[in-house]
Amino acid sequence: MCLMTDNPRRQFLKIALGGALVATSDAWAGTIASAEPSGPPSPFTPDSVTRAASELAKDAFKPPKSNLPDPFPSLTFEQYATIRRHPGTAIWEDGVSPYTLEPLHRGSLFTNPVDLYLVEGGAARKLAYDRSVFDFGKLEVPKDLPDIGFSGIRILKGGTDAAIFQGASFFRSLARGQTYGLNARGLSLHAGDPQGEEFPIFRALWLEKPSPATDALVVHALLDSASLTGAFRFTIRAGEATIIDTELTLFARVAVDHLGLGTMAGTYLFGPLDHMHPDDARESVRDVGGLQMLTGSGEWIWRPIANRATLQVSGFADHNPRGFGMLQRNRSFDAYDDDISHWELRPSLWIEPIGDWGDGEVQLLEIPTDSEANDNVIALWRPKEGIAAGGSASFAYRQFWCWTPPARPDSAAVITSRMGKVDKRLRFILEFVSDAFADPKRAAEAIAAIEASPGQIVTSRLFTSAERRSVRVMFDVDPGSNTYSELRVVLKAADKPVSETWLYRWTA
Fold first, then answer.
1. What are phi and psi of 240, to 5 degrees?
2. Is 0.85 surpassed by the pTM of this model?
3. Is 248 within 8 Å of 395 (Cβ atoms)?
4. Tens digit of each residue's pLDDT (9 = 90 or more) over 397-444
5. What is the pLDDT of residues 114-144, one digit of tens each?
6. Measured CA distances, 17 to 32, 50, 169, 289, 491 (Å)
7. Cα–Cα distance measured from residue 384 to residue 361, given in angstroms and rounded to the nearest whole number
8. What are the structural domains, with CATH classification, of the chain?
């Protein structure tokens, strides 16, 4: 006998995921097998999420319903941060798994529900909300809370943070000994476009319990938005650096002409290139100092970041990029002088594409801000080709959350970029460092090729230091009546580059 349904796709979603999706929209409503006392586990295969994303894309997007009771939706972030799990309640805290999990409460900025599932032995089991594992401090919360679900997951290794997935498609990680800084995104849509950005969400996460013999934790994620759906597989290896291999397949509901891969965002309030806060006692306030790129042709590019007076969008066209990321190069405490935030301990994030990404551009957005609480600098890869309505596309890349990326220039790199004014001219001071410059003869061979467009290079001088293994370049720019100037500097010897390429856009 055949069971008939008025929505075959809805029925498929229940079957494909063992019904492992809560009723957050009519497109995938239904009950599923979950952890006790909800019922037995359900089968889960590596392609379950991909099949679900493909079917979900055939229905119209419906935002998740927030059924969160008071006081959680109205909590300030400070109040929300007081909600903690009781010690000893982490998942997989059995001494066998190298990783443990802490489901995160909903509230404040994080009101959207995210379904969480544990996968073991080819079966998925839904996690049920349990009020008793949370310490609410002085908050007055109902004693008879229903299953309100979770806002995300915190992943730990050896009791130390490894990653957090929480809010839209945001996640973050860090290296050993670091503090959290940059955010990554599963996907960005229309970042910086006049019509405004679209923020996809992770509807559900599936976490595979690693065996004692493996050091990797696999997280599957179902992404949903008005424009498309997606299936993600994150393979996390936490250590001195945390490496996250990201595989994704996207299914477009409508034509998508501006998507961002490997999107990352961080804070930049002020630094040596701008002096927006002269009354601030600190030397610098920033998660990162610049954008590093390794082009398909093998050119290393360093683009310092700044806090701008107006939105600045920069695009760096490339074919099959070999890597890009936002880095915190200066690790000296004295460069920040902040005993509370310790910006020198923030992670760098470097991304290496797996496979060919074709034509596109690394895009950098610098958004004005007067608060260090804002993630106002964003970097991403924007493919030249979009996805047609009803079409699909797959990508893969490797993330390195690290102190220093594994790939780095074998030529001189810029460690300091400073700017000031001399009369009506702009003065820039750059310091290029290389082991080769410990030899005074090698350092003396370097010349600086400097370009400004528009504007005019008025004067330039080089200063060498064998002790610092550096060549410092000082140059003055006369911008005339122009309100911007694109600057380019590279050191050369015998007419060949001996440094990375320094790029910067000055704006009035």
1. -55, -40
2. yes
3. yes
4. 999 999 999 999 999 999 999 999 998 899 999 999 999 999 999 999
5. 999 999 999 999 999 999 999 999 999 998 8
6. 8, 10, 20, 43, 56
7. 7
8. 72-402 (2.70.98.10), 413-507 (2.60.40.10)
